[in-house]
UniProtKB/TrEMBL annotation:
It is found in: Membrane. GO terms for cellular component: membrane. It comes from Megalops atlanticus (Tarpon). Its main location: membrane. SUPFAM superfamilies: TPR-like. Pfam families: ST7. This is Suppressor of tumorigenicity 7 protein-like. CDD domains: ST7. The keyword Transmembrane helix applies. Belongs to the ST7 family. It is a multi-pass membrane protein. Keywords: Membrane, Transmembrane, Transmembrane helix. The chain crosses the membrane at residues 21-44, 68-91, 475-496, 502-522.
Length: 540
């Protein structure tokens, strides 16, 4: 067995060496190939009659009129302009260059290029453990803890504006969530459960509502059918609350259904102004199901406590959940910053602070703001109303624009209620970016900002919303190159049309200067090498 393992390891090592050798050879083989082509052309210059061909081409080019060059340069300008427009559209939509993407995806493997996997060790988390930079597949999408009701809130927006606030991708994720939460064991599948399984998969809202009524006809105690009607058919929060209470009476002992219904009932109470009742329901829910922390019910509780201005209770919740070992969110980081800003914001003055320096409390508040901005840099523009808000999506990407929209939609009023808090945020939030290394190879207080947020946010947020991008991407090389090529050829076409004789003289001077080094090299090679290389080889 030992000999077998040794032989297999040796064969694996030989294979790896062979692959590395081939990759190395592909890196330099193009230069060898190019040199061989040049030598072959030189050797076969007489049989191929290259000099006569070049002379004929020169005569032909000299007979061309300026109109030909105008058409040539104009066509080049048009083609490069079309490529520029396509590249710009592709960059705006997908955040990358199409030519660059094709080159990396298809040409790089042929040339032996490999991804640099050693850079993963450069990134570290807050506690010092090695943490690789998140890839697109690792950018997890979370259910929005404070997501609105489709029938009574999202649909109203559509009726008024004619715009769809939810994307198909977002709604499809919600359908998958509902199937996961509300699907019973297949061995105990009842007829109404089969109907509801199909209902969650329906794309048409009216088809879903119709299926829910069919499930109620089969069983008047079908809790998930009432949940669907409360979410999508109810046109007011009061009506949704009535349907959720009906669902609660029919829920039985299904934990997932119970937690979902009780949470939505608490949110109904919060929206209807019964904030203390909502807080009690949320606290009871967290005590009854303490292991369901991934549902982020504490974020609902924090928002309700802020509405009550119960800041001591907010601090108590933060002390439990703002822990280094727990996942962070914009709600956690910005609520912590708000509480620290509240202690100093009413007396804060940037002029006075610049004269005397920051006090300890002010420094703590500024550091908390910097921490929050580093976690999600998109939030301040919404809190400071530099960007317009839209209805939050049903799913969010942490540290992305979707999370920023969801946080600001519910918490902007709490920041406005604290005197001077937004002024302190306005004076200090941009200072965060001077503390974060560029090009973001290492995080400061958190792991490096993921590069996949823009793509995911474009899927989650409606098309009429301008997605906030961080860090701002520089224009790809190929966009700059095609822009320069388009401008240059257009200028040549214009000058050739206006000054044909002058441009002809300039073109001849340019080409004669351009080919002068090549002519010099050819003359030197003629002096060193025999006139008939093949004749000398036959004599040898």
């Amino acid at each position: 067995m030992a000999d077998t393992s040794n032989s297999s390891s040796q064969s694996t090592g030989f294979t790896d060496k062979l692959k590395s050798l081939l990759s190395w050879s592909w890196t330099y083989i193009w230069a060898i190939w190019f040199a061989m082509v040049l030598v072959l052309i030189y050797v076969l210059r007489s049989p191929l009659k290259l000099q006569e061909t070049l002379a004929t081409a020169s005569v032909f080019l000299s007979t061309l009129t300026p109109k030909f060059y105008v058409a040539l340069t104009g066509t080049s300008s048009l083609i490069s302009g079309l490529i520029l427009i396509f590249e710009w559209w592709y960059f705006r939509k997908y955040g990358t260059s199409f030519i660059e993407q094709v080159s990396v995806s298809h040409l790089r493997p042929l040339l032996g290029g490999v991804e640099n996997s050693s850079s993963a060790g450069l990134f570290s988390s807050v506690n010092g453990d090695a943490e690789p930079r998140p890839s697109v597949s690792e950018c997890k999408v979370w259910r929005n803890p404070l997501n609105l009701f489709r029938g009574s809130e999202y649909s109203r927006y559509t009726w008024v504006t004619g715009k769809e606030p939810l994307t198909y991708y977002d709604m499809n994720l919600s359908a998958q969530d509902h199937q996961t939460l509300f699907t019973c064991d297949t061995q105990q599948l009842r007829p109404e459960d089969a109907v509801m399984q199909k209902a969650w998969r329906e794309r048409n809202p009216q088809a879903r509502i119709k299926a829910a009524y069919q499930a109620i006809e089969l069983n008047s105690d079908c809790a998930t059918a009432y949940v669907l009607l409360a979410e999508e058919e109810a046109t007011t929060i009061t009506e949704a609350e009535r349907l959720f209470k009906q669902a609660l009476r029919s829920a039985g002992k299904d934990t997932n259904v119970l937690v979902y219904i009780k949470r939505r009932l608490a949110m109904c109470a919060r929206k209807l102004g019964r904030v203390r009742e909502a807080v009690k329901m949320m606290r009871d829910l967290m005590k009854e199901f303490p292991l369901l922390g991934m549902l982020n019910i504490h974020e609902n509780l924090l928002e309700a406590l802020l509405e009550m201005q119960a800041y001591a209770d907010v601090q108590a919740v933060l002390a439990k959940y703002d822990d280094i070992s727990l996942p962070k969110s914009a709600t956690i980081c910005y609520t912590s910053a708000l509480l620290k800003a509240r202690a100093v914001s009413d007396k804060f003055s940037p002029e006075a602070a610049s004269r005397r320096g920051l006090s300890t409390a002010e420094m703590n508040a500024v550091e908390a703001i910097h921490r929050a901005v580093e976690f999600n840099p998109h939030v301040p523009k919404y809190l400071l109303e530099m960007k317009s808000l839209i209805l939050p999506p049903e799913h969010i990407l942490k540290r992305g624009d979707s999370e920023a929209v969801a946080y600001a939609f519910f918490h902007l009023q709490h920041w406005k209620r604290v005197e001077g808090a937004l002024n302190l945020l306005h004076c200090t939030w941009e200072g965060t970016f001077r503390m974060i290394p560029y090009p973001l190879e290492k995080g400061h207080l958190f792991y490096p900002y993921p590069g996949c947020t823009e793509t995911a946010d474009r899927e989650l947020l409606p098309s009429f919303h301008e997605v906030s991008v961080y860090p701002k991407k520089e224009l790809p090389f190929f966009i700059l190159f095609t822009a320069g090529l388009c401008s240059f050829t257009a200028m040549l076409a214009l000058l050739t049309h206006q000054f044909p004789e002058l441009m002809g003289v300039f073109a001849k001077a340019f080409f004669s200067t351009f080919f002068a080094p090549l002519s010099f090299i050819m003359d030197k090679m003629e002096s060193f090498m025999p006139s008939s290389f093949w004749h000398q080889l036959t004599r040898i």
